[in-house]
Prior knowledge:
The chain has 438 residues and is α/β, with parallel strands linked by helices.
Amino acid sequence: xxxxxxxxxxxxxxxxFVGTHFWNIQESTFCYDINQASSQVKxxxxxxLYREGKTIMNEVxxxxxxxxxxxxxxxxxxxxxxxxxxxxxxxxxxxVRWAGDVTLHxxxxxxxxxxxLDLEKQDDLIGSTASNEDDDSSQEADTTEMNxxxxxxxxxxxxxxxxxTYNLDDSVEVWSDFLRCHLHPKSVAIIKEYAHQSELEPxxxxxxxxxLWKNGKVSDQMENHLHFYTEECDHLQGFxxxxxxxxxxxxxxxxxxxxxxxxxxxxxxxxxxVSPSTFSEGIPKHDSQRIINAALAFPSLxxxxxxxTPVSLAETxxxxxxxxxxxxxxxxxxxxxxxxxAILASALDTATLGLRMQEALLPLHQLTxxxxxxxxxVATLNTSxxxxxxxxxxxxxxxxxxxDIPIWQSLTPHSNLHLTPFMQSVILRGVSQRKLxx
Length: 438
């Protein structure tokens, strides 16, 4: 069965927060046990979002077909090129073409949280295991016994971190602080003209983004990343795009979508505008700027997309954001982007599940064309997270409890759940087939 590829673009820091959770969710569904994978029914076709490649050492890689756009100083410990394809050498870095005296300044690397440290240990252990297997295939295995301390140290490093619990609420500052998967060197695109959280020249205005795109150097950089992925796709069906609509990325994303629409007009473009639920500044000028940015961005994001959906956990997004969305069975901290982006990512993962199914695949153009049949290209996103259903209940019993009240909460600010939808797509997951007909 051919894979209908999708290219994902994340435009802005909060978009990358949502995207990081989204990719972590995808990674959690991977099965690395060959025996277990061969006996399981494959429900999700990961090739829709992922690509297979090879390093210069001929090692096979499997990375997201992703372009993550952000500002300078926003990556912290993450390298722009990643670590899979790192081919820099000491000789190359020390080749200084200068006849005078040279002073070398070395800066210490930023500390990593426990989650990232454990990921490194796991990667090192898997790499050493693979290396040992290669050595065993060409020569006899080393039968030298390890002493007790070495054996305990080897066994103390878990092969998997799925069962460990991490509290990253106080340690996550940027999205790379909890990124689980490895990225291709063409995945991260950094805009060097502006710095993350800069007080001298913040990237907060719609026109800053549009003017930045007009800078040929920046737009060429983005198109270079984009063409790398599009040219290797055999059956590209379109793009899923996340855009911060409240800051300078509102203008940058609008210009990017216009370029996508012009060059790939026959492909589907599903755009999700994202925003945090709270803002710490509380400065009236900045509050007004966010409203103006959204007002300028929404028409462009809708016009140049096949379907556009704005989402946030704030019920309203005026100068003072409304109350955070209340979930009956979920506790979260609305002031933490790490929390709110996780909820949005989980909802988007379910909403787009049909695009990645192994069987009964829903093409992107079919989804977007169905919603925009009457020229309406803006949709809302609702979720019941988590879905409140006990082990002894049937689906019909749960639905009967919500005849007069909505069963879900809206993730689109200012939307009215009591209105009859013009068109809707409902996705239910995690419920056994037996309970559908009880």
